[in-house]
């Protein structure tokens, strides 16, 4: 029996009605899947049409798109964070909200993706301030400082998460000794619930529906030898299930639903991946482990295979790159194929739209359109979105004769956003909007 996990027919009527919006990290369903069809993903001569380009400070924060407005976070080095609203059609600034936030983060710049509703924009600053900004007044309705309220120490690279909304509850990770996940009332910022502490993380809470029950699932670590994957009821914070079967010293990708009872956990730093089974009594068991993992972004379940970028720090150089690239795996943990170094694609982001994987190469910013198939890698379109190809080719040419060629890594790791045929990509200080419909 084939598992059509990403079937567009399964998307709710609410989501379909708002399919033109990309309101938060990884889109309307929090899984990087767009329901848009009729996209132009192959008929390119010199690449897709570039509608606009903007330059900001360096950073990793991706965009949300709602009602033809683009929302993203920018950070003035060591000084302030700024929420910026742009016109989707031409990239002009419509308004912004800023606040003083002195300090330096490792890997400087913005983090996270805003969460946009009809009346507000929510985001988490790198030092743990949770903001609700009014879309009419452009001022903060409330701010909760996680460090002050919960006595939390910043994770290794600061708070890099994006808020998650379920009903009237905004879910964020506090990651202190006494508070793990916290649920705030979206209108008032009042704490509705909190879980006990369980370590820290760079992963994002996500909403999964298992056995008909929506739940917020999160992966964390104590940083040395113990991991926690926890599931809670979004409205009450009641723990539904919890397991320590997967450990990653720095979790980043969030859990991925595979079937009603299978959940895939993955990450980098040589900690591999794990498939777990969660039955309808909320009992958890391990199905398999594999050594491959994806360091930054979550994988995709398409048909009865899982597609992920098997790229992490340890295989970014030399012959080890042959173990990476885009990988296709079955539900038993068998790698069907991987692209290795041709192409490698770094720690980039993927989204799934109109039957294709759109992949932002994390090293170079190239946009690759791939038709997913267990039969092998099939690239159907390519674009040098950020204009890096000449520089990359020149650096490679200067290494002629070396046994191992070092590919430049521009750290273009930001998540993409797709709305109404407009694809917004960020490469550090550069933000580009492409028309693909």
Description:
The structure is a single chain. With 437 residues, the protein is mainly beta. Helices cover 4% and strands 38% of the residues. It is built from three helices and 33 strands. The strands form eight sheets. Strands 1-27-28-29-30 form a five-stranded mixed sheet, with no helix packed on it. A four-stranded antiparallel sheet has the order 2-33-32-31, with no helix packed on it. The protein has a four-stranded antiparallel sheet with strand order 3-4-5-6, with no helix packed on it. A hairpin with a 2-residue loop joins strand 23 (300-302) and strand 24. 47% of the residues are buried. Mean pLDDT is 94; it is low at 1-19.
Beta-strand content: 35-45%
The count of helical stretches stands at: 3
Q: Which strand order does the major sheet show? A: 1-27-28-29-30
Head-to-tail CA distance between termini: 34 Å
Low-confidence stretches are 1-19
Please tally the β strands and state the result. Answer: 33
Quaternary structure: single chain
The biggest beta sheet reads:
5 strands, mixed
Mean of residue pLDDT values = 94
Our Rg estimate from Cα atoms comes to 20 Å
Helix content: under 10%
Q: What characteristic shape results from the CA principal axes?
A: globular
Which structural class is indicated by helix and strand composition? mainly beta
């Amino acid at each position: 029996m084939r598992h059509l996990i990403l079937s567009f027919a399964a998307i709710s009527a609410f989501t379909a009605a708002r399919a033109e919006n990309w309101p938060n990290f990884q889109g309307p369903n929090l899984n990087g899947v767009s329901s848009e069809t009729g996209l132009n993903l192959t008929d390119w001569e010199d690449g897709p049409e570039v509608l606009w380009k903007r330059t900001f400070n360096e950073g990793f924060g991706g965009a949300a798109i709602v009602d033809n407005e683009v929302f993203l976070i920018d950070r003035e080095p060591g000084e302030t964070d700024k929420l910026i609203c742009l016109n989707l059609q031409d990239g002009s600034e419509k308004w912004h909200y800023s606040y003083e936030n002195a300090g330096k983060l490792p890997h400087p710049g913005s983090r996270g993706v805003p969460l946009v509703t009809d009346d507000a924009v929510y985001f988490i600053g790198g030092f743990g301030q949770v903001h609700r900004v009014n879309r009419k007044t452009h001022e903060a309705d409330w701010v909760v400082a996680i460090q002050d309220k919960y006595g939390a120490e910043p994770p290794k690279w600061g708070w890099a998460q994006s808020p998650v909304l379920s009903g009237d509850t905004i879910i964020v990770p506090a990651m202190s000794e006494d508070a793990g996940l916290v649920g705030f009332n979206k209108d008032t910022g009042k704490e509705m619930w909190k879980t006990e502490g369980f370590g820290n993380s760079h992963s994002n809470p996500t909403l999964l529906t298992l056995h008909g029950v929506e739940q917020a699932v999160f992966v964390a670590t104590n940083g040395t030898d113990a991991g926690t994957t926890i599931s809670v009821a979004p409205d009450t914070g009641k723990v539904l299930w919890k397991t320590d079967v997967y450990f990653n010293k720095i979790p980043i990708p969030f859990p991925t639903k595979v079937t009603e009872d299978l959940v895939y956990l993955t990450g980098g730093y040589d900690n591999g991946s794990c498939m777990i089974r969660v039955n309808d009594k909320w009992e958890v068991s391990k199905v398999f482990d594999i050594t491959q993992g994806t360091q930054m972004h979550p994988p995709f379940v398409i048909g009865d295979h899982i597609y992920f970028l098997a790229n992490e720090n340890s295989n970014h150089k030399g012959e080890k790159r042959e173990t990476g690239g885009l990988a296709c795996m079955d539900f038993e943990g068998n790698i069907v194929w991987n692209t290795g170094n041709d192409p490698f694609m770094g720690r980039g982001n993927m989204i799934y739209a109109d039957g294709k994987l759109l992949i932002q190469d994390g090293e170079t910013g190239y946009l690759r359109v791939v038709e997913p198939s267990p039969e092998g890698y099939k690239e159907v379109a390519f674009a040098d979105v950020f204009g890096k190809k000449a520089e990359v080719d020149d650096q490679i040419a200067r290494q002629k004769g070396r046994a191992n060629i070092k590919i430049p890594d521009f750290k273009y790791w930001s998540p993409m956003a797709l709305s109404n045929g407009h694809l917004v990509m960020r490469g550090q200080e550069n933000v580009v909007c492409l028309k693909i419909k």
